[in-house]
Amino acid sequence: MPSIPSNTATPSNTAIAEALEELGDLYELDGAVVHRVLAYRAAARSVREAANSVATLAAAGRATELPGIGATIQDKINALSEAGVIPAAERLRAKFPPGLVALTRLHGLGPKRARLLYDELGIDSLEALRDAAVAQRLRTVRGLGPKFEANVLAAIEAGAATAGQQRLLLPDALEVAGTLIEGLAADAPQDARLEVAGSARRGVESVKDIDLVATTAEPERLAGCLAGLEQIASVGSSGAAGARARTHAGVGVDLRIAAPPQHGNLLQHFTGSGAHNAALRERVVRRGLHVSEYGILDDASGDTATYAEEAAVYEHLGLFFIPPELREDRGELDAAAPGGTGLPGLVQERDIRGDLHCHTVASDGRAGIEEMAEAARERGYEYLAFTDHSASHGFGNAVSAGELRRQIERIREADAKLDGIELLAGSEVNVLPDGSLDYDDELLRELDWVIASVHTAFNMAEDNMTARMVTAVEHPLVDAIGHPTGRLIGRRPPYALDVGRLIEAAAASGTMLEINANPRRRDLSEVHARAAVAAGVLVVVDSDAHAPATLANMRWGISTARRAWLGPQDVANTRPWSELAPLRKRARV
DNA sequence: GCCGTTTTCGGCCCGACTGTTTTCAGTCG
Q1: Which of A282, A328, A373, A452 has the smallest CB count inside 10 Å?
Q2: Nucleotide B14: nearest residue by CA–C1'?
Q3: For strand B, which residues in window 283-302 of chain A come within 7 Å by CB?
Q4: Residue lying closest to nucleotide B25, CA to C1'
Q5: pTM summary value
Q6: Which tens digits make up the pLDDT trace of A13-40?
């Protein structure tokens, strides 16, 4: 007997989501009804956003508790776990060459035409498509013409140009959007009202393009202003409804324009997300209401209601106002309905009373204790914890035990000298591969605040990494786990870790988990932070500042906290230190 | 394929744009 193939290990949520997405693509090529295809994509999204192992849930018959997953897809997940493959995918893969899915990724070429080109001309790859377009063979297919050929070639070229192009991190996106709005406002008609919409307004981690909305009585003139901005390299289309353009850096910009009385409708529509809007519209269409960017059409009266303010749109639909960060179709519509669970009062940046993670020149920071402390005080903080890296840290200065003792003294001296802010002595201690820490307990006990983080040996197997983290969580002197998954958005995936088990251990031991506010980290993610709080974990939002200016990164951590549905009570450092200190598990035992 | 104030079947958002069409299908956001 051959040995069991190695791909039968429990598949990660990412692997399951990818398998479901592939199945959706294949069914689409196979000509399945669009709703079936969408069902697979919705299921993939649901799996991707699940905080716990979906394979484990499915094995227990409980994956159907997740939205968008029914008995059929649960069976397929179980097949993937047990046999390493989904039979339906195997069958369809044999039917369609792998290059065919790549065709559907081209702008303007969807599944229907990809299938048509395959059936009629045997085109099964980008190369074959390019050759056929150059040879003018595409126009021989009924329904396709020379324009289509030209567009295909342009799309292939554009695809090659943008391949591997990074999405913009939220701060970069907001900066670009801000300069565009500033530039537009300078030339715009007097009545123009301009706003950032889209995923940037929802506070997502990274964005694909910049969405702007505007209202004015002179739409063509405003749309024309976009082309004149120095940041804009090219304009694709421009008219009364808006304009599409691209910056010199290659960032797509979509400006949508409506009449002033429709500002609320347009902003609601263009803020999205697509999933939120679709769910919102489905919900109210049963009552004869049709929502679009132009207004709310009521079948009963035939009237279309328009609103200048967004809140009025939700009110008309019988819902409480839903903050943009929650508009992801993650339960916000049920919560916002009368008789629903209600929406949380989301944490705000001004609720934060102190920062519990920053660095100084003692390790890899760029400023000293007093400089950081004064910057924190200027931000209105009541306390700041200095958490330089520890003894085994690989970059910056390693802080030996003796050096940490001297640092504690320096912090105490600065604290005595500086009024208006309490300075706390802490450390960001390395979690070694066996889960132990690189200072002894006697030294850790002298600190006010201990964060434990992984900075080495990222490539451990999931079981080992999870055991390593759980050991650190259970250490009696660890107050919080820093950037728990180690991911760097757009650069490095999280290390293999069962976050569900980490959360369980944190809840059981009373250890806090960090939302690291560095815009490239935002770790915990919104999905995991929401699960952590639901499990009873207290979250701490920290800047991880390495210089005074980056204390302001707190803002991005608050975005994640808000997207995780967190209120002030869920975030430890909305409390004064006198209330937070007793919540450390060392103070509770 | 999922789901339920339409509840085990029959629905499943909305509008713009494009290219190819004599009235619309495909694609996109």
Answers
A1: A282
A2: A292
A3: 285-286, 290-294, 297
A4: A143
A5: 0.94
A6: 999 999 999 999 999 999 999 999 999 9
Cα–Cα dist A529/A513, whole Å: 8
How open is the CA angle A88-A94-A100, to the nearest 5 degrees? Answer: 100
Instruction: Give residues 358-417 of chain A lying near strand B (Cβ < 7 A).
Output: none
Judge whether residue A160 has pLDDT over 80.
Answer: no
Q: What is the pLDDT of residue A71?
A: 96
> What amino acid occupies position A228?
G
Nearest CA among A431, A441, A426, A412 for reference residue A483: A431
Q: Which nucleotides of B are covered by protein (CB under 7 A)?
A: 1-3, 6, 11-21, 25-29
CA–CA distance from A474 to each of A13, A295, A448, A480 (Å)? 26, 54, 18, 10
CA of residue A52 to C1' of nucleotide B1, angstroms: 23
For residue A306, give the nearest of A320, A291, A318 by alpha carbon.
A291
Closest residue (CA) to C1' of nucleotide B1 is A36
DSSP string, A338-397: TTS--------GGG--EE--B--TTTT-SS-HHHHHHHHHHTT-SEEEE--B-TT-SSS-
* Closest residue, by C-alpha, to the C1' of B24: A143
- A61 CB less than 7 Å from any atom of strand B: no
* Protein residue closest to B16, using CA and C1': A241
Tell me whether the omega of the peptide bond preceding residue A319 falls within 30 degrees of 0, making it cis: no
Each residue's pLDDT tens digit, A74-126: 999 999 999 999 999 999 999 999 899 999 999 999 999 999 999 999 999 99
Confidence of residue A395 (pLDDT cuts 50, 70, 90): low
Q: How confident is the model at residue A374 (pLDDT cuts 50, 70, 90)?
A: very high
Q: How far is the CA of A283 from the C1' of B4 (A)?
A: 12
The answer to whether residue A5 scores a pLDDT higher than 60 is no
Which structure tokens are listed for A460? 């451990």
- pLDDT of res. A249: 87
Q: Residue A88, CA: closest nucleotide via C1'?
A: B1
Whether the CB of A33 is less than 7 Å away from nucleic strand B comes out as yes
Sequence-distant (6+) residues with CB within 8 A of A18 are A44
**Burial class of residue A221, CB neighbours in 10 A (0-12, 13-18, 19+):** middle
Minimal CA–CA distance to A227: which of A247, A201, A250, A256?
A: A247
The string of pLDDT tens digits covering residues A459-509 is: 999 999 999 999 999 999 999 999 999 999 999 999 999 999 999 999 999
Taking the C1' atom of B6, which residue's CA lies nearest? A286
Q: How far is the CA of A112 from the C1' of B24 (A)?
A: 15
Q: Locate A274 and state its tokens.
A: 């697509």
